[in-house]
C-alpha cells in the first residue's frame, strides 16, 4: 500500500524541507555550547573539528539524499536499512530513532521551563513547559503543512539571529564598531590558535557531532514532500553549505572577540543565557537588550527542536507500524494525513519523562536522557551502511547510475568516511571511563548502544533474519 493510498499528504513545500533541514541543526549547540569548544581546543582547533564533522555530515546527507529521492518514505533510513541490509537492522534503527526523539521532546520541554524563568523567576517553570507541549501537539495534530509552516518561521528566527550576529561580529572585528578587543591576540592563543593538542580537538568532535544532529530529518520529510526529486537535492546542496558557513563563521567571530579562557565560555548554559557567547558579543557591541534577545532566540530554538522531534518520532512510529514492526493502530491517519495515535504516544512519552523530572524522579529522568544520548550517531552509522549497500545492489542488479535522480558524491569514500567518523565519535564520548573501568560512567554514557544491540539481536533471533544478498535487495521505488 502506498503512502498516498494510506492518506499521507505530500504537503511539505521545497522551502519547508530546506528550512527544516537548516533549522534542525541550528540550536543551542551553536547559541550556547559553541563557546565551550573554543575554550577547549582554541580558535582554530574548534574550527578544524567543526569542519571535519561538517564534511562527514555532508557525505551522510548526500547518501541519505540519494536514497530519499529514489524511494521517498517517512520511514527513511529505518526502511532503507531493512530493505538494503537486514530487516533486523531496520527494526532496531526505527525503534532507536523513535525513542531518541520522544525523549528529546521531553528534554526540550523541561528546558523551556528553565529558559522562561529568565523573564518570570517567580512563576513555576512547569507551566511554560506544559503550554509548549500543548502548542507542539496541536501544531502536529493539525496537518503536516502546519508543522512545516511553523518550523519554517521558527527556523527563520534562528537564521536571522545568526546573520545579525555575524554582521555585528565582523563589523567589530574590522573596526566599524569600536572595541578594545585584541583580535590578533585572541586568534593566536596557544600554538597559533590551537590549544590542548589532538585530544582537545577530538573532544570537540563530540560536541560538534551533537550540534549537527537533526540534519537527517531531511530523509523523513521526503515522505511528505510535494516534489522530493527537487526539494531534497536542493535542501542538501544549499542548506549544508549555509549550515557549515554559519558554524565556522560564528566560531571565528567568537574566537576573535572573546578570549578563549574567558570563564563565561566554559559556564555557558541554557539556564544562564547571560554567558552565551552570542550574548557577550552583542553586549560588547552596545546592544543593551542582548540577554533578553538571546533568551528569546534560545527559547525559539528549543521549541523548534521539540517540534521537529515530535514530527520525526511520530512519522518513524507510523512507518514501523505499516511494516508490522509496531502495533497497527499507529499506522492509522486522520483525514488531514496525520498519524494521530503515533502522535499521542510520542507526546505521552514526553509528558511522562517531563513529570518524572518535576516530581523528583531526577534519577529516572537522567537515565532516560542518557539512554537516548548516542542514538542519533547510531542512526548516522545506519545511514552510511544502508547507502553503501544500496549503491552496490543498484549496480549488481544491472541498473544505470545515470538513471538516479540524485547521485551522492565520492562513492564509496563518502559513506565509508562517515561510518568511520560516526563510530569514532561514539567511542570517543568518554574513553577515560574504560581506562579506569568506571562501570557507572560507562553505563551512563553508552547506555543507548546495548539497547540498540538488544533490539537488533532480539529481532534477528526471533525472525532468523540474515543479511540480504545484493541480487535480492528490494530496489522497488516508493513513489
TrEMBL record:
This is Amino acid permease. Residues 16-468 form the Amino acid permease/ SLC12A domain. Gene3D superfamilies: Amino acid/polyamine transporter I. PROSITE patterns: AMINO_ACID_PERMEASE_1 (PS00218). It comes from Leuconostoc kimchii. The chain crosses the membrane at residues 20-38, 44-61, 98-120, 126-147, 159-179, 199-218, 239-260, 280-306, 337-355, 367-390, 410-429, 441-459. Coiled coil: none annotated. It is found in: Membrane. The keyword Transmembrane helix applies. Keywords: Amino-acid transport, Membrane, Transmembrane, Transmembrane helix, Transport. Its main location: membrane.
Amino acid at each position: 500500500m502506498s503512502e498516498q493510498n494510506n492518506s499521507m499528504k505530500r504537503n511539505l513545500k521545497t522551502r519547508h524541507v530546506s528550512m527544516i533541514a537548516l533549522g534542525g541543526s541550528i540550536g543551542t549547540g551553536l547559541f550556547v555550547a559553541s563557546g565551550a569548544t573554543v575554550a577547549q581546543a582554541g580558535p582554530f582547533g574548534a574550527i578544524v573539528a567543526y569542519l571535519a564533522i561538517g564534511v562527514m555530515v555532508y557525505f551522510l546527507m548526500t547518501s541519505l539524499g540519494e536514497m530519499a529521492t529514489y524511494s521517498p518514505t517517512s520511514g527513511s533510513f529505518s526502511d532503507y536499512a531493512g530493505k538494503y541490509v537486514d530487516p533486523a537492522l531496520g527494526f532496531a534503527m526505527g525503534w532507536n530513532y523513535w525513542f531518541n526523539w520522544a525523549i528529546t521532546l521531553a528534554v526540550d520541554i523541561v528546558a523551556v521551563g528553565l529558559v522562561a524563568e529568565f523573564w518570570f523567576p517567580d512563576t513555576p517553570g512547569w507551566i511554560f513547559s506544559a503550554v509548549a507541549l500543548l502548542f507542539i501537539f496541536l501544531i502536529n495534530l493539525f496537518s503536516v503543512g502546519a508543522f512545516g509552516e511553523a518550523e519554517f518561521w521558527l527556523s527563520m528566527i534562528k537564521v536571522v539571529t545568526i546573520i545579525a550576529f555575524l554582521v555585528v561580529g565582523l563589523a567589530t572585528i574590522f573596526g566599524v564598531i569600536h572595541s578594545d578587543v585584541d583580535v590578533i591576540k585572541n586568534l593566536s592563543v596557544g600554538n597559533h590558535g590551537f590549544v590542548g593538542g589532538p585530544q582537545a580537538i577530538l573532544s570537540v568532535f563530540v560536541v560538534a557531532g551533537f550540534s549537527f544532529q537533526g540534519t537527517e530529518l531531511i530523509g523523513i520529510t521526503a515522505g511528505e514532500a510535494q516534489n522530493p526529486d527537487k526539494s531534497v537535492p536542493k535542501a542538501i546542496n544549499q542548506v549544508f553549505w549555509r549550515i557549515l558557513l554559519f558554524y565556522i563563521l560564528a566560531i571565528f567571530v567568537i574566537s576573535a572577540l572573546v578570549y578563549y579562557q574567558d570563564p563565561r565560555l566554559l559556564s555557558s548554559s541554557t539556564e544562564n543565557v547571560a554567558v552565551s557567547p552570542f550574548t557577550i558579543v552583542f553586549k560588547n557591541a552596545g546592544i543593551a537588550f542582548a540577554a533578553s534577545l538571546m533568551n528569546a532566540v534560545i527559547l525559539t530554538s528549543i521549541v523548534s527542536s521539540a517540534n521537529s522531534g515530535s514530527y520525526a518520532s511520530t512519522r518513524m512510529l507510523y512507518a514501523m507500524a505499516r511494516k508490522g514492526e509496531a502495533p497497527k493502530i499507529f499506522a492509522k491517519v486522520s483525514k488531514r494525513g496525520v498519524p494521530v495515535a503515533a502522535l499521542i504516544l510520542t507526546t505521552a512519552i514526553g509528558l511522562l519523562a517531563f513529570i518524572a523530572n518535576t516530581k523528583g524522579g531526577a534519577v529516572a529522568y537522567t537515565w532516560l536522557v542518557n539512554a537516548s544520548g548516542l542514538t542519533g550517531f547510531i542512526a548516522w552509522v545506519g545511514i552510511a551502511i544502508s547507502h553503501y549497500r544500496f549503491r552496490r545492489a543498484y549496480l549488481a542488479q544491472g541498473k544505470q547510475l545515470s538513471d538516479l535522480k540524485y547521485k551522492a558524491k565520492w562513492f564509496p569514500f563518502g559513506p565509508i568516511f562517515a561510518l568511520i567518523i560516526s563510530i569514532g565519535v561514539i567511542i570517543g564520548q568518554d574513553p577515560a571511563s574504560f581506562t579506569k573501568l568506571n562501570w557507572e560512567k560507562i553505563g551512563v554514557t553508552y547506555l543507548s548502544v546495548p539497547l540498540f544491540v538488544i533490539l537488533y539481536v532480539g529481532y534477528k533471533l526471533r525472525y532468523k533474519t540474515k543479511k540480504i544478498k545484493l541480487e535480492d535487495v528490494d530496489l522497488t521505488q516508493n513513489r
